[in-house]
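Retro notes (design track)

What went well: tokenization of the new backbones is finally stable.
What didn't: we kept losing track of which sequence belonged to which structure.
Fix going forward: every design gets posted as structure first, then sequence, in one message. First example under the new rule, 333 residues:
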């Protein structure tokens, strides 16, 4: 499947030529918007279509790994699991609005950022995202790239609830409820932090994008939790499972796969309905809240001939007022 993906992205010499051009821009730490015109001209010169440009750029910006390919069969099973996903997704929409109201409108997420900043003593700055200016296909792949955390949260919730002394139907119902709450919170947080906002840790010489910080904190906990819960299920089997359906290991294994692929479809639904409809507003609102609290500056972090530079550009407030316009960036670099 990995080879098929590579072939679909592009393996011809002209594709590799364009890939190398894009890689040079990214290796220099420059957003693609900085060289959008030059990249498009290069693509036309070697006869690379706009769609192919999007695939190549997205493959470089959002690498798909093993956990992503594990979820691809859900697209084949869409007609089967889509019904279950739709049943769960419908009540998610009002809850997403409620969570957004609490975290963004009532500034609960800003309060968390203040606590993190005070505890770690990091600085909050802005660094333009490298995928700014990427072809539209990149947005779709970025959604797929975010999906494993959402999906594994669904499986995590199911395995925890399966310990409860209740019927199989109630286990599935409670799992869906827990999953809806978890995914709603995570979706709003990830939409808010998918921006220029970055933690700067001078003590340990680190620069951590806020969205990466969220992944770093969530990923290990979810991964370790899944390994522990699945290992425990394999070791103790029916002794710790309840419900007529889940006691037998074969139906239980099938239920795990069903939950995994149903959660994948739900992840796609969340991406389409929330990230693409509310994501931009949530992101801008949260950035403005950070401006009011921290007054951060925007920097360009790039590399030139082996020299790394952290170049101050402008206050984040001005960056947002100009709608993240790259005209000033072009003049300063």
């Amino acid at each position: 499947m990995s080879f098929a993906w590579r072939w679909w992205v592009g393996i011809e010499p002209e594709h590799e030529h364009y890939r190398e051009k894009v890689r040079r821009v990214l290796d220099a730490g420059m957003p693609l918007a900085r060289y959008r015109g030059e990249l498009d001209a290069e693509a036309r010169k070697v006869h690379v279509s706009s769609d192919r440009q999007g695939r190549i750029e997205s493959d470089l910006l959002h690498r798909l790994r093993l956990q992503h390919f594990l979820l691809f069969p859900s697209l084949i099973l869409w007609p089967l699991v889509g019904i279950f996903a739709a049943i769960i997704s419908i009540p998610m929409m009002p809850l997403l609005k409620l969570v957004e109201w609490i975290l963004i409108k009532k500034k609960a997420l800003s309060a968390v950022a203040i606590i993190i900043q005070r505890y770690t003593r990091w600085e909050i700055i802005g660094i333009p995202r490298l995928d700014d200016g990427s072809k539209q296909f990149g947005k779709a792949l970025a959604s797929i790239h975010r999906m494993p955390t959402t999906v594994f949260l669904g499986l995590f919730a199911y395995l925890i609830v399966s310990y409860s002394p209740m019927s199989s139907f109630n286990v599935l119902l409670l799992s869906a409820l827990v999953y809806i709450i978890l995914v709603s919170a995570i979706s709003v947080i990830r939409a808010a932090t998918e921006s220029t906002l970055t933690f700067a840790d001078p003590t340990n010489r680190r620069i951590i994008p806020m969205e990466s910080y969220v992944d770093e904190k969530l990923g290990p906990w979810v991964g370790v939790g899944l390994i522990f819960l699945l290992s425990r299920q394999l070791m103790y089997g029916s002794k710790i499972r309840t419900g007529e359906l889940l006691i037998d290991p074969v139906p239980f294994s099938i239920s795990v796969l069903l939950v995994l692929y149903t959660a994948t479809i739900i992840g796609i639904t969340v991406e389409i309905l929330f990230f693409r409809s509310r994501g931009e507003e949530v992101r801008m609102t949260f950035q403005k809240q950070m401006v009011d609290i921290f007054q951060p500056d925007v920097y360009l972090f790039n590399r030139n001939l082996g020299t790394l530079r952290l170049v101050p550009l402008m206050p984040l407030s001005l960056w947002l007022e100009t709608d993240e316009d790259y005209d000033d960036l072009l003049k300063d670099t």
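Added context from the reviewer: The radius of gyration is 22 Å.
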